[in-house]
């Protein structure tokens, strides 16, 4: 399942991306917020998506949005099995999936247009997870580090 969430800074673009996903017949679940709240905090929503992806990092994926993209990305990467990537162009979207096996896409709403975000989402979702030995080896090292750190 694809999960999506934002804070207030990402709310408007999240709503646009939801419309884009629906138009492409891509199933997703919105984990919030359901209405604009200028006083909400990005860790609350990033945690919801990252927890879902962490539960099944192969079957689940996520999209997170905040103004810089940094905050949601930092939170998401605290979770085991999550590889969140901060992306604002299609080349990075492709590389994050192919090279780093990213399972959460973090989008910086202050630095991307709606059209640019749609292109990034489309590219990210359509790029298969990499299978080259060097990428798998590197991700394997990340997974070994997680096992050590999250005993």
Descriptive overview:
- The structure is a single chain.
- With 151 residues, the chain is an alpha/beta fold.
- The chain has one domain (2-149): Sugar-phosphate isomerase, RpiB/LacA/LacB (Ribose 5-phosphate Isomerase B, Chain: A, 3-Layer(aba) Sandwich), CATH 3.40.1400.
- The chain is 48% helix and 14% strand.
- Helix 1 crosses helix 5 (114-126).
- The longest helix is centred in the last third of the chain and has 17 residues, at 133-149.
- The model has no long low-confidence stretch (mean pLDDT 96).
The count of DSSP E runs of length 2 or more, i.e. the number of strands, is 5
Query: What is the name of the CATH architecture?
Result: 3-Layer(aba) Sandwich
Give the count of structural domains: 1
CATH class: Alpha Beta
Specify the number of helices: 6
Structural class: alpha/beta
Shape: globular
Query: SSE order in H/E notation?
Result: EHEHEHEHEHH
What do we call the CATH topology?
A: Ribose 5-phosphate Isomerase B, Chain: A
Strand order of the largest sheet: 2-1-3-5-4
Termini gap? 27 Å
Indicate the radius of gyration in whole angstroms. Answer: 14 Å
Biggest sheet descriptor: 5 strands, parallel
Low-confidence region ranges:
none
Percent strand equals: 5-15%
- The average pLDDT is 96
Helix proportion: 40-55%
CATH superfamily: Sugar-phosphate isomerase, RpiB/LacA/LacB
């Amino acid at each position: 399942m694809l999960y999506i969430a934002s804070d207030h800074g990402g709310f408007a673009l999240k709503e646009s991306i939801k419309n884009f996903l629906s138009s492409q017949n891509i199933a997703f679940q919105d984990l919030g917020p359901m209405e604009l709240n200028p006083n909400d905090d990005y860790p609350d929503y990033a945690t919801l998506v990252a927890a879902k992806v962490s539960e099944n990092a192969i079957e689940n994926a996520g999209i997170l949005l905040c103004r810089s993209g940094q905050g949601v990305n930092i939170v998401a990467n605290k979770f085991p099995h999550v590889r969140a990537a901060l992306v604002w162009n299609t080349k990075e979207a492709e590389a994050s999936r192919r090279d780093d096996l990213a399972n959460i896409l973090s989008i910086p709403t202050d630095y991307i247009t709606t059209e640019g975000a749609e292109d990034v989402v489309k590219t990210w979702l359509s790029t298969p997870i990499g299978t080259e030995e060097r990428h798998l080896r590197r991700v394997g090292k990340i997974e070994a580090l997680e096992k050590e750190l999250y005993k």
